[in-house]
Amino acid sequence: MSGSVGVGRVCRIVTDRCARFQAAPAEWAARRLLYPARVAEAEEDPVAQAHGELSLARIALAEDDLEHAANHLAGAIAWAPALPEVHELLAALATRAGDGVAGLFPLEEPAYIGTVVARAHLLSRTSPVEALRLLAQATRFDPAQPWADVSWVRALDVARLDPDELARLTVGVMQPLGDPAGPEVARANEVYLDLVRRATVAHPGHALLHGAAAGLARRFPGHTAEAVRWGARGHKLHADKLTAVWYAYALRADGRLNEALKVMRAAWKAAPGEMDLCADMANWLAEAGRLDEALELLDTATRTAPDYDCAVHTAARLRFAYDGDVRHLVALADFMREHPVTSHEHADLDEACRERRWLGAVAGPAEACVNVLHQLAAEDRGPMAHLSLSALEVPSALALLRRASPGIEVEITGPPPADMVAPLRPGRALWRYDALDAYPTVEPAARASQELLARVAAPAWPHPIAAYDHALPLGQLPVEELLSLLVHPPAAPDGWPMAQGWWERSAQTFACLGLLHCEELRAGAAPGDTARARALLTEIAYGVEDWTTDTACFALAVAAWLDPACREDVVAAVGYRFLAAVQASRQRAVTIRDSLAEVVLMTPDMVPDVVGLARDVLGRGPAPAAPAPAKPPKKRRFFQR
């Protein structure tokens, strides 16, 4: 669990520990809030747009058309919630409509944001707590707007309100603000800070209110010292896990890490079963560069409770950050599969894989012909007539070049390398060579198949298993269609933001993942059995050297993440293909070699010597020795010929 998750856990603790906080709002709990499309998408001046809505509302009010007047008023609030004229006209509408004014702003699903906020203002006199709840819903939806910064909130007599309700409202709005809140969000929501400041004075003996105030205030730059005072007061009034967490987080935000750790350790000592306290401390220590202390703390936690998800997730992420060994992430994925029920949602695996080649993103093209296309696109020179290459490059790259510059003449120096133009093993070949020219061995896929892949393919994903899950719709395509998409990728979607070659690489990657899902290949097999798909992917990997080689190896590695039973086979297939690329690179350029090295590093249970070679190829050197984990790793296997 990363440090940013702590507030979500605090919100959960509030509902777990305080039954009085569990009740839903009496009238309505917004599950979906929407902006009207004109507000969400337009780039016009919001104040000008609000005045336009107000003009229409005045016309409707003059004609006694209260429903249309309310509709335009809601639109004006969505554009500019703090505009004084909005509130003046809302008051006039309330006077005209009388007791039925709230009915002009019905809360439906989905609800427009302006309708919700207008209703809140109308309820402020009779039901201020309910009104605050609705404003909090709006703040959670879009914290950059000053939904609650109105006169009645700033003048509210908080002494008359239930401090439990005020604490609950504070918890509800703090998380969306950010940690810390950005300048725009802080300005828009300073009203909540003013509210809790007055509330703590009005209710000096309420521990949870002071703790929640600390949780809110630490998000506002320049107010961390105030957060510490509130946190200390709440913890002094009632020292439990919840007030300790709020106090410790405030201390940390104020730059007093050691004091924060002292508070957390005391809370953990008082409640040894609360392992999330340990996970938070480990995150803080790691962020402060004290990784050895963090891992030692986590080892203590995992020895005490080896199945506690917070400690397991945090330890895996921190160990991977330390030594880059994917076995930590694979072990985490195995743990997640074996323990589907968790204390809360975790993002550690996503964070560890983010923007790392193949773990969280496709590897980009490395060919000279694609680099030329990049330069042409940057300088806007138009199509080329002639290009001279010093060596043959992979067929997918040259096919891209010819699609981008129809009619181009490509001159390649030297004879075609035998180990590049012929498959390394017998099997399905997607390309065939005639001298230096490569041709697909399959016809283009049907338009519907191309459109499906274009909707699914992406250049990045949270982690390998998430990429596999995302490719699920492609499993409905026949094998031949998926193979065709590998060599005849569809056109990039409109607005594709990345450079030449990245779309084709992304499309091929997801076509390979689609083979793992392919219903045709799974027919008659046990659920989850990918043996036929892996056999075909291995044939592709050992076929003609191409971008499809490393994408097939990536799909094999993903299969190994999913199924420990197939890891030995995948290690052999991916490892030997990489070794063949390294061997060839001693005689000629192998543009996919580094990408294959990245696939090796993400393959579960890969042979350590091959991992070391992959690190050398990538110029990373040996991995640093990390502190020993709580449980010794499994014995590694070596290739058997």
TrEMBL record:
Record's signal peptide: none
A Pfam family of this chain: TPR_19
Domain of life, source organism: Bacteria
Region of interest called Disordered, as start-end residue ranges on this chain: 622-641
Basic residues: bias regions: 632-641
Protein's name in the database: Tetratricopeptide repeat protein
Organism: Dactylosporangium sucinum
